[in-house]
Design brief:
Blueprint lengths: L1 H27 L5 E4 L3 E4 H17 L4 E4 L9 H5 L3 E8 L1 H5 L6 E8 L2 E9 L4 E6 L4 E3 L2 E2 L12 E4 L8 H14 L2 E3 L4 H9 L5 E6 L1 H13 L3 E4 L13 E7 L4 H8 L4
Parallel strand pairs: 3-4, 10-11, 10-12
Antiparallel strand pairs: 1-2, 4-5, 5-6, 6-7, 7-8, 8-9, 12-14, 13-14
Helix pairs in contact: 1-2, 6-7
The chain binds D-MYO-inositol-1-phosphate and calcium ion (CA) (2 copies).
Keywords: Hydrolase, Magnesium, Metal-binding, Transcription, Transcription antitermination, Transcription regulation
Organism: Marinomonas profundimaris
Pfam families: Inositol_P (PF00459)
Amino acid sequence: MLNDYAEWLAFAKKLAVTAGDLIIDARQSSTFVRDYKADHELVTSTDLAVDQYICSSITERYPEHRILSEESSPAMDLGGIVDGTPVWVIDPIDGTVNFAHGHFHVAVSIGLVVGQERILGVVYAPFLNECFWAMKGEGAYCNNKKLLVSGAKTLRSALVATGFPYQKTDLPPIVDRVSRVLQNCQDIRRNGSAALDLCWVAAGRLDAYFESVKPWDMAAGALIAEEAGATLGLYLPQTGVWPDAINGEGLLVSTPDLYQDLLALVDVSL
Ligand code: IPD
Ligand code: CA
Ligand code: CA
């Protein structure tokens, strides 16, 4: 099994780096076009092209595996999670708004789960030349450097990241949470890539992150944060739509010492 995991991880890293090259090329040559999903969610032709590249490469190499991918199979039948078939969870560009606006905070996110376990995660930031990765039980790394969460213990010293949904009608309770965090913590960041927010908690650049996100935003980054020593949990009532390993409905990730205090801030029902 471990041999399989190592092979899958090496494959995922190669995929992420090649996908990152496609992203850099598209931006340098300005060859992408913008569109909107569900009328309000930005998607570019590069999101679709990178998704297609990653998914077809996985299908070619591992035809028996399944894929849950933001752009081409967001409603994949999750029976694969239950029967133990490996499931790849893909966000071809996490940080599409950053990508389209010429920012550098952009990532390719590739996670793999088997049953209820997150097995591996690769989050590659092509403009920053940083590849974050983890394998279950083996620690988390940025390029070749081992990652460890910060030692933050108090809310007053905590730098906390979050994000906002494309759907503006969902905003009022989120703004309420942001206000509570702003009043009690050092500051807030909205960097525009959930996958990188999770990796930055792993790297100790952020002390915590909270947001309600989809499986493709968090499958890889959650394992990377966990393997670097972060505490992970949920602050919203659950709908039960997604299996636990890829569920980001009200995701709170922080240093172990901050977790309970932050949960009390962002769980408005407490
Ligand atoms: C978005 C980013 C953003 C987060 C949003 C996500 P996308 O993903 O991760 O930081 O706040 O919730 O939807 O659309 O760039 O893949
Ligand atoms: Ca995303
Ligand atoms: Ca995306």
